[in-house]
Amino acid sequence: xxxxxxxxxxxxxxxxxxxxxxxxxxxxxxxxxxxxxxxxxxxxxxxxxxxxxxxxxxxxxxxxxxxxxxxxxxxxxxxxxxxxxxxxxxxxxxxxxxxxxxxxxxxxxxxxxxxxxxxxxxxxxxxxxxxxxxxxxxxxxxxxxxxxxxxxxxxxxxxxxxxxxxxxxxxxxxxxxxxxxxxxxxxxxxxxxxxxxxxxxxxxxxxxxxxxxxxxxxxxxxxxxxxxxxxxxxxxxxxxxxxxxxxxxxxxxxxxxxxxxxxxxxxxxxxxxxxxxxxxxxxxxxxxxxxxxxxxxxxxxxxxxxxxxxxxxxxxxxxxxxxxxxxxxxxxxxxx
Amino acid sequence: xxxxxxxxxxxxxxxxxxxxxxxxxxxxxxxxxxxxxxxxxxxxxxxxxxxxxxxxxxxxxxxxxxxxxxxxxxxxxxxxxxxxxxxxxxxxxxxxxxxxxxxxxxxxxxxxxxxxxxxxxxxxxxxxxxxxxxxxxxxxxxxxxxxxxxxxxxxxxxxxxxxxxxxxxxxxxxxxxxxxxxxxxxxxxxxxxxxxxxxxxxxxxxxxxxxxxxxxxxxxxxxxxxxxxxxxxxxxxxxxxxxxxxxxxxxxxxxxxxxxxxxxxxxxxxxxxxxxxxxxxxxxxxxxxxxxxxxxxxxxxxxxxxxxxxxxxxxxxxxxxxxxxxxxxxxxxxxx
Lengths: 336, 336
Description:
The structure is a homodimer.
Chain A: E1 6-11, E2 24-29, E3 38-47, H1 52-55, E4 70-71, E5 76-83, E6 93-96, E7 103-107, E8 112-113, H2 129-142, E9 149-153, H3 158-169, E10 173-178, H4 181-191, E11 195-198, H5 204-211, E12 216-221, H6 226-231, E13 235-243, H7 261-268, E14 271-274, H8 284-296, E15 304-308, H9 313-322, E16 328-332
Parallel strand pairs in A: 9-10, 9-12, 10-11, 12-13, 13-14, 15-16
Antiparallel strand pairs in A: 1-2, 1-4, 3-5, 3-7, 3-16, 5-6, 6-8
Protein name (chains A, B): NADP-dependent oxidoreductase YfmJ
Organism (chains A, B): Paenibacillus allorhizosphaerae
Keywords (chains A, B): Oxidoreductase
């Protein structure tokens, strides 16, 4: 490695709509030195997540805005190359909130060891926060019963592809809402969704109705907006809606729909609940054991969209909001 | 009694907006004769309920439209004057779905005996479906904890006045939303609400914010629409919303608001659940025992708005949608 070259992306501008490449600036810094209790990590993969969009704004619903002129980003997985911490050895694979960098120093106590039983990137997707989000939203709020119909918006996304697989394991009819024929084919052929409705088709509402002949029992919502207005017209009595994300509003567009939801809930005695993964922190181990078990048995697959090259991180984020990915959006920074 | 005079109201027209007196026609029929297993009831009180508005339309969300040219109405309380049924004696007070009539014959098996321990009309309000609706929505969905803030829309209505009282018994701060100064005064002075916000005031949003300095933990929603859009901006994490009614839509107006709700639920991990009283049918006895106990102890009062005279039934219904009532809207047909 070149000790003087540690590329990083700073946030330099707050977008008003979709993020843009000009919102980020690539800089080079020296590779930092690990102090006492710290480790130096060579980053292998970066997690690209919808919530990044909030960070970029001045006003955010849940988290503090990301400061301008500082290194942007979120979780990553990397390999320990220097360790001043008992629990981490050189060569270990670890996960941490490193930001968009090629090398990072972090307190050893704040790093999580990644199981060697799965590809390293899975710790950012199916076997990480993405998979756990799918698990708790579906199992704890959706409470699917065999034979019920589960509808998933943004079905081709990181969380959606995980929810679809878990719902199939529960014996449900699984119907996805996605935005392209390419995604529809993938979800049907590679993941085993029972039906996919393309919301860009003019007659998608009729198609959803047809895909759910017995109504909808569980709705796992990643998107919100007008899609939800249509879904709720098909709710069965005592249906459950898990509100995982509202990506239709993340780029700052006002909420223009959702108007029919309270009335629909009232009409069907349905439940709608928002959640954050950290609501379930005390049950992470339980869920992760189950997910790893299913993964080992070949019942769950880690679907990911890997963008190659550290310098592609901004483009990967832009692509996430344009719907480029099927499964988890990942930037591959370096080979193991 | 005059055996030839049993006044009744027929539904003769389906309104497009608010109901109108011309939607009903007053007719006279002979007083019917009780057959085997039946009783003849002289009606004392009629229950006037928001759900009547659905009945009147061609297209209804939950119940079949009420046929034209047939006797309109819902529950009433009356006195048995002829009985061909073992369980009912002449002089007993009974509750049943009689419709808007002065005398009705009903199958004895379908009548409920009314406890003599409370005024007869209470069986249509606090100690009937109204009070049970308040009880289950608040206790089962709202799950109030002492010290929490409970907000109630349509606070001066039949359900709202009951919810407010039960929430006070749970040790909560209780904030009502109502539409006039007269109602505000009554709710503060007679029921003990901690604060009332008048949604007709230009600055009611600021007033609600001020009335809920610690945010909102439970929202008991009878109204929906734009009021809810404001309430949800003040939700605390893990707040609960019971959707009891959506009266802002009952007169056929489209749902013009509610847009911010899914986003707010997501942001706060809040729960929103619709319900119908009959979801809780297996627990009616439990709830009614508790309500009667509180009533006997003087901890709950039956607030009602009594309109005198059978011929006033249509005007009472129109008044319900104009917000004339504080507490349960009742038509008094006859003295005991």
